[in-house]
Amino acid sequence: MLLKLLDRLEETLIMFLIGASTLIIFVAVAHRYLASASIPGIQDWLLTLNFGWAQELCIIMFVWMAKFGAAYGVRTGIHVGVDVFINSLQSRMRARFVVFGLLAGAAFTGTIGTLGAHFVWENGLGYALMSAVGSPGDYFEGPTTPDLEWPTWIVYSAIPLGSYLMCFRFLQVMVSFLRTGELPTHEHGHVDGIEPDGVPVDANPYNMDDDLHPADIKHHAGKGDGK
Fold this sequence. Notes:
Elements: H1 2-35, H2 42-47, H3 54-76, H4 84-87, H5 91-133, H6 152-156, H7 158-180, H8 214-224
Helix pairs in contact: 1-3, 3-7, 5-7
């Protein structure tokens, strides 16, 4: 139940960041061009609107989207990997290399998450929490972003949060692999919700007029051999 909730939260956050950043960029670009056009009444109104913060906000959203998208990629198996050598090994040796790779990924992302958490704490999170409960003491208040004037520790929080989530996904995939012997896979040409039309059994989808396509030759060879 908790894993499904985490999956849904992860997917919802990524979809929101993609959709919102795309909309903000579109509105900011449209505003820039329309405000430069000599349209009576509308131009004066558009010039009163300030979208100077749009670029900074979209950069922040893309950073968060990249960090959580990387964790989503580990869970669904959409990261590109060169596994020709690994897949050529015997099953037991391949399993050892796979587990080692997953553990290495978890160790790396866990280290990045820990270093990122320390950086965020020293960059203003400690000051914000201590100020909320009492005296901030000697904690550094931290800088703010140029346009939005947000505390930068909020922006940099994507590093520990996304890295720790990615570390958890590596461990989750490793446990699943040890239980089932399978890794998550994703067909890059597949689109969720769209099922490909079935191809008749006796049809050759690779058919070409010159019959020079390698798969087409294999198809005819198979028919000639009675396979």
